[in-house]
Amino acid sequence: xxxxxxxxxxxxxxxxxxxxxxxxxxxxxxxxxxxxxxxxxxxxxxxxxxxxxxxxxxxxxxxxxxxxxxxxxxxxxxxxxxxxxxxxxxxxxxxxxxxxxxxxxxxxxxxxxxxxxxxxxxxxxxxxxxxxxxxxxxxxxxxxxxxxxxxxxxxxxxxxxxxxxxxxxxxxxxxxxxxxxxxxxxxxxxxxxxxxxxxxxxxxxxxxxxxxxxxxxxxxxxxxxxxxxxxxxxxxxxxxxxxxxxxxxxxxxxxxxxxxxxxxxxxxxxxxxxxxxxxxxxxxxxxxxxxxxxxxxxxxxxxxxxxxxxxxxxxxxxxxxxxxxxxxxxxxxxxxxxxxxxxxxxxxxxxxxxxxxxxxxxxxxxxxxxxxxxxxxxxxxxxxxxxxxxxxxxxxxxxxxxxxxxxxxxxxxxxxxxxxxxxxxxxxxxxxxxxxxxxxxxxxxxxxxxxxxxxxxxxxxxxxxxxxxxxxxxxxxxxxxxxxxxxxxxxxxxxxxxxxxxxxxxxxxxxxxxxxxxxxxxxxxxxxxxxxxxxxxxxxxxxxxxxxxxxxxxxxxxxxxxxxxxxxxxxxxxxxxxxxxxxxxxxxxxxxxxxxxxxxxxxxxxxxxxxxxxxxxxxxxxxxxxxxxxxxxxxxxxxxxxxxxxxxxxxxxxxxxxxxxxxxxxxxxxxxxxxxxxxxxxxxxxxxxxxxxxxxxxxxxxxxxxxxxxxxxxxxxxxxx
Length: 721
Prior knowledge:
The chain has 721 residues and is of the alpha/beta class. It is 44% helix and 12% strand. It is built from 31 helices and 20 strands. Strands 15, 16, 17, 18, 19 and 20 form a 6-stranded mixed beta sheet that branches. Strands 3-2-1-4-5 form a 5-stranded parallel beta sheet, covered by helices on one side. Strands 6-8-7-9-10 form a 5-stranded mixed beta sheet, with helices on both faces. Helix 7 (83-93) crosses helix 11. It is elongated, with a radius of gyration of 36 Å.
């Protein structure tokens, strides 16, 4: 039910594709976005024509309108766009403000308007512009007598009568009407405040007590209803205006006119309130061509179908999100699409509807990081001041990121402990709340054993996970702790690539920049930096659900600048390097390693790096806790670099292929290609089936020619893992 409420909330709060708040607030039906867009481009004449068509009396309305649009605009921008000033500017800079004469055939019907107030004049103008024969009857000797106390007659009357120049509307002043029977007309309009009999289908009327602007709007509405009646012979179903009692500001006819430049600048402050910000900044929404409301509908369907339904709308969108949080950052309504999709994943996983194969590799990888092959815990003393938590991927990219940093920390703070395992992010992203909570229980126990120290993290994702889900643990980035001597020799300029998980942690972002500058780097900022940081494509396991979205996202990040990058997330470093981008980790600079371009390690190399890291730590710190049992030797595989790279991209580990080959050869379950003599075998490990084409390579080695995987079940086959 929580996600159903979230779907409704997105539907209600997302303003994309809807009328702008200013248009909704304005009593006149017109496109304020279009008006402001024309002013912004300097098309004052076109803007004026839009304005006049909407209000009828442009030289009057900007003076008397209470500008409800500004109240709506204030909710979005804080400081509203000055609409009255821009309306005034459209009048001042239009090439011509003369009324347009429409070449329409004369209508036979005759219409009487009783009362020359604003509603009567508005109705008469609209009908006479359609070339109806209109006569206005006013008992006083002047029009709009009620406005004289606020607007001088020399301003008011010319502003109104100018719009009737091209019409044949007749005005009968000093002509009171005692009864509608006096008027031999096809239609009669009794304007606001006129008290005469009204019980006839051809007699139209409006209520008294309307504000000046409401009268203008009501007159235009009645003109539309009269046109409908004359064409169809029956009344148009519509709602008459009700007195709003809206006040209006002191007339502004003496205010200075904005210059053209000032007007264009003021109009340029408008965000247009179509709010495509999330779609412009989110690769996921752009690739699927969806608005947040469209997405919420698809997700709602995915959450509310029958369990046996195979095709579920929204499943790929739910699975492809990286949870970078940029959508909420740029959304005026603070809609957090990522959090919404993460809750959806969790609900689907709980109900057994989330495809487990999408997250199979990462859940296995987390088990590897937290198991005997990679996990290490070291306490140099009984109670530690700090606990270094490098995360599971730093050592996979380069074991020295952990060993050299820990050595430096120990030199500065000898009582610093070390915990090498995963923070649980894969379980969170897989929607597996039970596994995620169990992992955090273990992490809390390690922290308590170390004496409740301050946790020092090098991975921004770990920082965010601990801050949000284990708030009782004090946490700080390791980059705020490192002390470096200043370097005199400058390094080449570079741009800082902020990981999306660093959003909201300005101390972390500033500390990295300070370290880079201490190392002699001249820094430049990217468009998407600090709180506007975008995901490199690693987050959320989206690459296994929609590789295209992940590739586009990685390419866009690599192309933000032609400069080399400096980042402080090993995943970002490796993803960007895979795009051919020179990207160094901040720890490369602080340790003086990995200069220039370094290709990313393959998925298998990452595993092997973590294995090697564990053994190096156990040898360096004999008191450290960790399995010292030797792993069984794996079947040796030989392959070319192209095959290795393709396997890594498809998240196929050499150990998976080795297990498949050993199992199938033991069971004698493989195919033989007679032309090449190569063997072909497959094995399902967890939720994924791995295939490989191979041949003997002498002794216990096998040469791999091809490999791929899929998520389909092959019934009746041996299942390993």
